[in-house]
TrEMBL record:
Source organism of the structure: Lentzea flaviverrucosa
Protein name as catalogued: Uncharacterized conserved protein YndB, AHSA1/START domain
Taxonomic lineage: Bacteria, Bacillati, Actinomycetota, Actinomycetes, Pseudonocardiales
Gene3D superfamilies for this protein: 3.30.530.20
Residues covered by the Activator of Hsp90 ATPase homologue 1/2-like C-terminal domain: 25-156
Protein family membership: Belongs to the AHA1 family.
Length: 159
């Protein structure tokens, strides 16, 4: 399977993985900064239009924790995710656990590959089973991520 959501290619590398790839017109150092700085994350990591990110905590180091929370402007529909960083290689690779609601933890790996001033960012989420992977796909997560990555491109253009 390979689909494109808001300019982001979504593929299934294995029975338990979802990969999302997008290329940005920015150097890896800038994409990394936008991906790891709370003030910038709050501008683009919003999923579908109309959401806000009132919680954005990042302790960017191996063993450091992260926590994100989203809600509608009136506070309704609020939900959170959290995890721990297991690998932090600036401008190149970020690996963390990802815990959402009562779901088993996933592992997310983000790679940043720069070529000629453009950066291809690939986020690969590894889940515990094919059923878990398929449930995440069915949730519309790739649509929200695609829209968020589209917004990330817009934010990068202003930096």
């Amino acid at each position: 399977m390979s689909t494109t959501k808001f300019g982001t290619e979504v593929t299934l590398p294995s029975d338990t993985e979802i990969a999302m790839t997008r290329t940005f017109d920015a150097p890896a150092s800038l994409v990394w900064k936008a991906f790891t700085t709370p003030e910038l994350l709050r501008r683009w990591l919003l999923g579908p239009d109309g959401w806000e990110m009132p919680i954005c905590e990042v302790d960017l180091r191996v063993g450091g924790k992260w926590r994100y929370g989203w809600a509608q402007p009136d506070g309704s529909g609020a939900f959170e995710m959290h995890g721990e960083y297991t690998e932090v290689t600036p401008h190149s690779r970020l690996v963390n656990t990802e815990i959402f609601a009562d779901n088993p933890p996933a592992v997310s790996t983000v790679s940043f590959v720069e070529e000629d001033g453009r950066t291809t960012m690939t986020t690969t989420m590894r889940l515990v089973s094919q059923e878990a992977r398929d449930a995440v796909l069915a949730s519309g997560m790739s649509d929200g991520a695609g829209r968020s990555y589209e917004r990330l491109g817009e934010v990068l253009a202003t930096l």
